[in-house]
Each structure stands twice: as structure tokens, then as C-alpha cells.
Structure prediction request, 239 residues.
Amino acid sequence: MIDCYGLTHVGQVRSKNEDSFASVNELGFHVVADGMGGAQAGERASQIVVQTMVAEMKRAGESATVDTMAEAIQLANRNIRWEAEQNPSLRGMGTTVVAAIVRSGIAYVVSVGDSRVYLRTGGELYCLTTDHSWVNEVGRGLGLTDKQLKTHPFRNVLTKAVGSEESVSVDKIEIEFAEGDTLMLCSDGLHGVAGETALAKALNEHAGIKEQAGALIEASLERGAPDNVTVVLIRNTDN
Prediction:
């Protein structure tokens, strides 16, 4: 049995929510996207990748694999670029995406950008994905401290996003997903603001996933929530 729950919040600063998420419970499929771009572009980009992936997963049905998710992201990449070409106000739009298929004690994960997937197992929280960001791929290699990186002019620059190039490479991960384990998909408005200590605390102090999701969002809001905040929790309740 798999329980899941998703929650999003516009945050304390932004006027619109450019995050999108969806769960297709019967397929064990879950996705979170964090859009970027001016006007309504970021919102539209995240919608396109979520809608495209949901449609492709439903088309594949029970035969869907991690490769199906990766191919759906490639299709979404083309869809975003095509729509941006048709509408000048959407040019330059893009989005991060993290998604997972959960079935038979295994979780298959894909990611592009700096949204993240975490695994909580045995009471410990582990980040499964790698941020495709200037901070992670360049800044840390330069020896900059976390304090310096938080104010660096390139702190929000992504090295990879859906829609930014003609094609996009997708990270793919396969892990064991045992009874009692929880997967957390989230935008950087959560992990980048609340921090991993607060994430672990919210998960440890609450039993139900609805309460956990609410506590996670609140952890970002308490710290000013300068960005949109989205989380999807998936728990394996019985293998």
C-alpha cells in the first residue's frame, strides 16, 4: 500500500505560484516542477512538463518505466520550446522537474534542475538527487562558503532545465523503497529555505503525511518563504 499527499504554497513574497505537481496514484507516479521565466512563463513551463508527463505515463500504463519518464521529459522539453516560439511573452521559459514511479518495493527517480528527491528510511533523511546549479557544480568547487553562496549573484543560476536547450539530459536513479520508507519530492522553495535539519525535524515530529506536509510548508513560511513552496510525500505503508 502506498500513501501520498501533495501541498503547495505561493510563499510570502511571490504574487503567483510557478510550481506545479501531480500524482497518478494508480500508476504510482508523482511529479514536482518549479518554473522560471518572466510574466506567466514560469507557471506555464511547469504546467507543460507536469501535463506532458502525466499524459505519457497514462499512455504507457503499467508498462511505464524510468525510461518512459525520461522520454516524457524530452517531449515536454520540445513542447515548451515550441510554445515559447509561438508566444514571444513566453520566450526563455523553463522548469526544473523531479518525478518518481513507485512499485513493488522499488522507486525509480528522474531529475532535471535543483528540485530534489529525498528518501527517509530508518529515521534518517537522505538526498537522492544532485542539483544542476551553478552553486553546486561551480561555486562549491571554488571553495566558497555556504554564507558566500547564499548571496552570490549566480546563486539562482541553473546549469540544466527543461526548455532551456534543444535537448536535455535526465538523471535517473533506482533505489529500494521498503515498508515504512518515505519519498519526498520538493521544490527549492522548501529545501533551499528551510534546510535539511528542519526537513528532518518536520518528518520526525509528525506521524501522518498530511501533517508532515503541512509542517514542511510551515518550516519554509517561518523563514520568510521568498519562493513558492511545494512538497509531495509518498510513503510505503505495506510491502
The mean pLDDT is 92. The first helix runs from residue 41 to 60. The beta strands are 2-9, 19-24, 29-36, 94-103, 106-112, 116-121, 124-127, 171-176, 182-186, 229-236. The chain has one domain: 2-126+160-236.
